[in-house]
Amino acid sequence: MLALSQSPFSLFEHLDRQLHQAEGTPVAEIRENDDCYQLAVELPGISKDAIEVKATEHGMAISADRPKVDSGEDRVLSEFHYGSWRRNFYFGKRIDPNQLQAELQDGILHVTAPKVDSVRAVSIKVRN
């Protein structure tokens, strides 16, 4: 059961997760600490060579392809999702796309995105 007291947006987050699962788009989890964002995406059965991670300073896109394998046998039931998908993630603070680290372990893609120090305000003298 979903507890609405957790967050005013928890119902929307729950519905979004359900929609992604129904579409075959993998579900994800994002954690944040002072230095970085840590993203985990469930990708069971997908090889690391089939995954692409692209990043900008504002977020990242993760895409992959799960081709349908024809074994020559008739399937009685198939709930697997085949084909290509892409998912975009945006962060509240800028990240350094050149320092991303990604690792696939036990069907979970772990991506670490280091934050970029915020731009500091400076004073500029006005000249004639």
TrEMBL record:
Transmembrane segments: none
The keyword Glycosyltransferase appears for this protein: no
UniProt entry tagged with the keyword Membrane: no
UniProt keyword annotations, A-Z: Stress response
InterPro entries per record: A-crystallin/Hsp20_dom, HSP20-like_chaperone, HSP21-like
SHSP domain sequence ranges: 18-128
Secretion signal span: none
Pfam family, one: HSP20
A single BP term in Gene Ontology: response to heat
PROSITE patterns hit by this protein: SHSP
Family as reported in the entry's similarity comment: Belongs to the small heat shock protein (HSP20) family.
Protein name (record): SHSP domain-containing protein
Organism name: Candidatus Synechococcus spongiarum
